[in-house]
Amino acid sequence: MRFTLNGREVGTTAHPMTRLLDVVREEFGLTGTKEGCGEGECGACTVLLDGLPVNACLVPVAHASGREVTTIEGLAAHALQRAFASEGGVQCGICTPGFVVAASTIPADATDDEVRERLAGNICRCTGYGGICRAVAAWRAGRPRTAPADAGSSATE
Amino acid sequence: MRAPVTSFELVRPASLQDALALMREGGLVPLAGCTDLYVLLNAGITPGQRFVDLWALDELRGIDVDRGVVRLGALSTYREVMSAPAVVGHLPMLVEASRVVGAEQIHNRGTLGGNIANGSPAGDTLPVLAALDATVVLASVDGERRVPFTSFYTGYRSSVRRGDELIAHIEVPIRAGRQWFRKVGTRAAQAISKVVMAAVRSDPPRIALGSVAPTVVRAWATERALAAGATLAEARHVLSGEIHPIDDIRSTAAYRHQVAGNLLERFWRDTESAR
Asked: Is the pLDDT of residue B272 over 70?
């Protein structure tokens, strides 16, 4: 079975029902993706499957066949990582990879409420979310807006 | 401890016809978005040894509207349900139920057919389907049969679906009247319902609730009472007789009775001006 992992084509002989989480961590050594709850509640194992956030603890690797998988290692140069560090969006760090992966798909024109909803599948037990929201806001403020200027909607950033 | 998945067999049919032939052989557990199944496997609960992967069966995908009925493939993900123009335009409470079923990671994988097949009394889309009198289309090698959603479940997590059948489609008739949906959980996101209610302000009104009985409840008597001009206090009393909540890890029976009545009142007041 073959799939694209962080832009590189790879093959695996893992059992098709092995969790995508276990394949990326154990077979490919990409241990940035964490296991938290194993129930799809906490989001620590979030990866992108064809560009969409999914819980890697709930995906059989068979469903990655022929698809594109992006883990936190594939976002190593992403400006969000710097923003999380500089805004205090990281404490113990277990939830951070999942937050960064999920946040990376937020469109530039999302409202603050939409940002919170897009991150609702990720749980942090340290920061109280303030630093995380500041980090995402700082990253968004530094991004070139692709949508037409919407008077007033981002005035609070 | 996690279930030993490498001892399982995963069969991956290329077509619905092949999948149905496999189902006829028996002993196979269907697998699709895995947002319920893998929670069980991760907890060491093994619902079977042989699994059939439906995920690639595009015959079970797609959402369209025809002659007053929205037809949704069983493999429609919550993301697809929420963004389909037919659903947005005609079934706003199905959009809302799909939105609150979980966060984006679940929207991208969980399916409407899976919510029905899993049959949890807390399934968030189930009161919507009950209130709108949806039809479940079951497929087997013998063909299709259609089951009214309100007679689909026979008890806690059990249904009329035979072991050789798959949920193929869900048909939801477009109904007149304002749709209303409310889920009550411990927090706004990522919660399993303590009480969930879907209703339509039509004449008679349509009302269904989840997490208040072993299966989703269609509140027929409450609907009749309201249509006959009962006061809200009387309707609350009727509703309390129609639901059978229990004390469990998420809530208590007493709380659920109270909240179900509160939701009924809220529905009625919120939709008063919109008739």
From this structure: yes
- Nearest Cβ partner of A40 from B8, B53, B105? B105
**Rounded distance between C-alpha atoms, residue B196 and residue B198, angstroms:** 7
With CB atoms and an 8 Å threshold, state whether B103 touches A120. yes
Give the tens place of pLDDT for each residue, A44-90: 999 999 999 999 999 999 999 999 999 999 999 999 999 999 999 99
pLDDT range class, residue B110, cuts 50, 70, 90 = very high
pTM score, whole prediction = 0.94
Of B6, B35, B188, nearest to A58 by CB-CB distance is B35
Cα gap B203→A115, rounded to integer Å: 39
Assess contact for B44 and B64: CB atoms under 8 A. Answer: no
Element (H, E) at A55: strand A52-55
CA A59 to each of CA A72, A98, B241: distance values in angstroms, whole numbers, following the listed order: 17, 15, 42
CA closest to B191 among chain A residues: A41
DSSP assigned state of A63: G
- Token pair for residue A73? 């290692």
Nearest C-alpha in B relative to A65: B56
Tell me the backbone φ, ψ of residue A83, rounded to 5 degrees. -65, -40
State whether residue A19 sits within 8 Å of chain B by CB. yes
Tokens 């309201």 belong to: B226
**In chain B, which residue's Cα lies nearest the Cα of A38?**
B42
What number of H helices and E strands is found in chain A?
A: 5, 5
ipTM of the complex in this document = 0.94
- Per CB-CB distance under 8 Å, the chain B contacts of A62 are 10, 12, 53, 55
Contact B76, B62 (CB under 8 A): yes
pLDDT classification of A145: cutoffs 50, 70, 90: low
Query: Which burial class, exposed, middle or buried, applies to A154 when counting CB atoms under 10 A from its CB (0-12, 13-18, 19+)?
Result: middle
**B257: nearest Cα among B198, B207, B212, B210:** B212
Question: What domains can be seen in chain A, in order of their start residue?
Answer: 2-74 (3.10.20.30), 78-153 (1.10.150.120)
Contacts of A39 in chain B (CB under 8 A): 39, 42-43
